[in-house]
Amino acid sequence: MRKFLIGFGLIGALVLSACGDDSSETTNDNKSYSEAVDYTITGIEPGAGISVTTEKAIEEYDSLSGWTVELSSTAAMASELDKAIENEEPIIITGWNPHWTFAKHPDMKYLEDPKGIYGGEEEIRTIVRKGLEEEKPEAYKVLEQFSWDVEDMEGIMYESKETGDDIDVVAQRWVEDNQDKVDTWLDGVNEVDGVKVELVSTPWDSERASANVVKFAMEQKGFDVTVTPVDVAVVFESIANGDGDASLAPWMPITHKEFYEGYQDEFIDLGANLIGAKIGLVVPAYMDIDSIEDLEPK
């Protein structure tokens, strides 16, 4: 799953720096963590859900007064994280689960969020346009039955990162290697002859993984599936307007709340397809800090 973290893509978290009077909350040159990162959170794309939520956190927490979010891209954020961890330097990133960075760097941790700005456990839901059940009942049934785990999604993202293979290639391999799980999604679904289905997704790897896994699963039953990546705001608009058939991308109850509530009477929510997602502030384990409130204002 924007100048919000949303993703989520997605789950998510921030790697932050910290400061305090205790010498354990300083770097080797006696700078506070906050000072060492120049009161800057390394973020992802502008408009992403987690980016928006992070801006709200800066407004709500006195400890983040004067801080900024450096917005660029998920790839740039991950690159900065890799460099910081390699050199054991402090860093603040917007982060989330599921995401391959947690598979690559398992010793990262979320900072406590006493104000609940980032919410608790998130779930990723499936939404479909009104009329889909009547017009394409077999597609509706697959979408209603689709569910998988955080580890499934993170595994696809991490394999894509490590091998250099595109997400859609890895997703196809995952479907081939996990036919037992796929069969539960296809249970009771009749064969069709080229019925077209458009899945609307965000462009982040987490949602690309779920959309392509469902695409290849549905193709086993004869569907002709297209995956269309768009900005998260357009995801909800397109399903509400009937321009797309379904989306597996909405993160709730916090990450995409603004967009969800703006259109919730105009689509059908089929419930969670993944439980256990998370967004928030995250730091490498070697940073001796536990809470957002351990940071210091600029």
From TrEMBL:
Predominant place of localization: membrane
Residues of the signal peptide: 1-20
SUPFAM superfamilies in alphabetical order: Periplasmic binding protein-like II
Pfam families: OpuAC
The organism's place on the tree of life at top rank: Bacteria
PROSITE patterns: PROKAR_LIPOPROTEIN
Residues in ABC-type glycine betaine transport system substrate-binding domain copies: 32-176, 196-296
CC per GO annotation: ATP-binding cassette (ABC) transporter complex
Subcellular location: Cell membrane
InterPro entries in alphabetical order: ABC_Gly_betaine_transp_sub-bd
GO BP annotations listed: choline transport; glycine betaine transport
Keywords per UniProt: Cell membrane, Membrane, Signal, Transport
Any GO MF annotation of the entry: amine transmembrane transporter activity
Name under which the protein is recorded: Glycine/betaine ABC transporter substrate-binding protein
Organism of derivation: Ornithinibacillus halotolerans
Gene name of this polypeptide: gbuC
